[in-house]
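User: My collaborator and I are trying to settle a disagreement about how two of our proteins should look. Neither of us wants to argue from intuition anymore, so we agreed to look at predicted structures for both before our next call. Could you fold the first one, then the second, and keep them clearly separated?

Assistant: That sounds like a sensible way to settle it. I'll keep them separate. The first protein:
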Amino acid sequence: MRTAEHWKDYQILDTSGGEKLERWGNVVLIRPDPQIIWNTPKDPGLWKKANARYIRSSSGGGHWENSHMPQNEWSISYGALRFHIRPTGFKHTGLFPEQAVNWDWMMDKIERAGRPIKVLNLFAYTGGATLACAKAGASVCHVDASKGMVSWARDNARLSGLEDRPIRWIVDDCKKFVEREIRRGNRYDAVIMDPPSYGRGPGGEVWKLESEIYGLVELCSRVLSERPLFFLLNSYTTGLSPSVMQYLLGVTVRNKFGGEVSADEIGLPVKKSGYDLPCGCTAIWQCE
């Protein structure tokens, strides 16, 4: 497992009974996590430090209870990158901390390239990967179907002092945008994809990762430049193992460009147990 172990402003303090106890700066939250199937003893003194706890609703969604947060929004840092944290009605906070292990990898890859790099970031959410790539010197096209998420990402760019970097902020359906970029002849040296496991489009279209991902990856392989640097694909769907993700990039990107493909779980260290909590998987194609 590749772990995001360099955080200072974020930490998983403990996990048990389907929940994780997390510190986000000076705010402690309890959130559900389906991967946590163990019922290890909880230290009452530790868990009582939580400012708020997210409770799922049987009808979908959920709510925060016992909320004693000092504010509804605050910021945390990862190196030179800064992010606004805003707990939402769907348990999320606006950041996936485990992705820091991928930010570090991408920044190093871009800095070592020795040439200008154009990055296409799809399903780009609040911009963690976008900011990392821009900080490393790449020009980035940030695409997400949610206007609110793109606005949040732009706020994070300003907070990180990256508002003047060459970033295109696009609110659009990712598949339709890629199709237009191919027709326009626009090409990218790197593609990042962080698609949701399930979702619905503005017209009621159903997105299910298992049935859509192959076609989308194959489509995105056609927007790569003649000298692509990397293709990074994330999945939070437990049914898609790292080996499946590796195979997928192999038969699409590697078959066209050579290079090498790897895949692994990504995760976060848990302070109390000393073990790592899996948080999804990442498959990476890169040039040799």
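The second protein, kept apart from the first:
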Amino acid sequence: MEDFADRETVIALKNIDVYQKKLMILHDVSLTIRQGEFVYLIGKTGAGKSSILKLLIADEKANGEHAEIVGFDLRKIKTKQIPYLRRKIGIIFQDYQLLSEKTVFANLDNALKAIGWKKKDERYERIVKTLDLVGLGTKHFKYPHQLSGGEQQRVCIARALLNDPELLIADEPTGNLDPFTSEEIFQIFHDINQKGTTVLIATHDFMMIDKFPSRSLLIEDGNILDSGL
């Protein structure tokens, strides 16, 4: 396996308490993820996977010794800084969160306008390039209800990649998909990672972990165990 020790740190947590609706569920969490790594976050339902991800995107407050992601201090981040943090992170959810009344293209165009892309021709070029990357170059005119679950997830991946993020975070991205489609989605994640993007996936899809082995962080009994791969 490649040695990432000399790579830039993308995520660094040291002795951080993780909360879920004001209830502390994990204590003294410490982990480091470096640029270019592909990392799984695994554990039983309710173990705290989603709560860690919420902390990383500043949906939950970070309390503890050190919490940094893509150059932002999560312990001190101000509300007005959060959109700038999220422009450096691509976020993919299990439930897609696509606008049903808008086409694939319009969904992505909305996302680009929301993060400050003002020029229509630049947005068009970026959307076309990103849809090609996830294999949806011919589906830009479709509406979400006209797409399969796997295609909708590809749109979500494209949306997450629009701003060329340093880090891609996915929360149970194949939870609603069949094994064949799940494999296609994980292949996309690995292709993205091969181009240099750091990838962190919270999942319980052990079939995909077996097919695409990589470093795993296991949440068990309130602790994080690192496979070290």
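Some points you might bring to the call about the second protein. The longest helix spans residues 179-194. Strands lie at 9-20, 23-34, 38-43, 63-69, 72-73, 89-92, 167-171, 198-202, 215-220, 223-226.
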